[in-house]
Amino acid sequence: MAGETAVSVPASLTAFGAPPTRATAVVIRQGPGRRAARALGGLAAFWGGAAIAVFIPVAHFVLVPTLLAAGVITAVLRLGEAARLASVRGVCPRCGTEQEFESGGRFRRERTLDCPGCHHHLRLIADPAAGMA
User: Fold this and answer.
1) What is the pLDDT of residues 78-90, one digit of tens each?
2) CA pair distance 55, 58, nearest whole angstrom
3) pTM of the model
4) Could you give the 3-state DSSP secondary structure of residue 68?
5) Do 80 and 103 meet the contact criterion of CB atoms below 8 Å apart?
6) Helix (H, G, I), strand (E, B), or coil: what is residue 111?
């Protein structure tokens, strides 16, 4: 998409009591226009839900203010999301299986993931020389 560039970042996967393994994280850098579009999309989705919730008897007293606040919070978080983690591929240090790990959300230098094969918690550590922190 316009305003986005995908970058492969070298990383490692660690688990308690196991030696680290190599991994590759695909990170999407987002320009200001793309971040604004994602923020407005999140805001519109929650506020649209709030508009529908107005017609739900009794529950609208809680739903409408909650959805309005969630829309603002989502928009603020997405505006500050300069880089998103698109995917992680590597070998699980516990089970030794090479696989694609479920990922998404804001990219940080360190992050936790779950192995879909052995269900252990893993820590993804991006290479600081990659300049994506």
Assistant:
1) 999 888 888 999 9
2) 9
3) 0.72
4) helix
5) no
6) strand
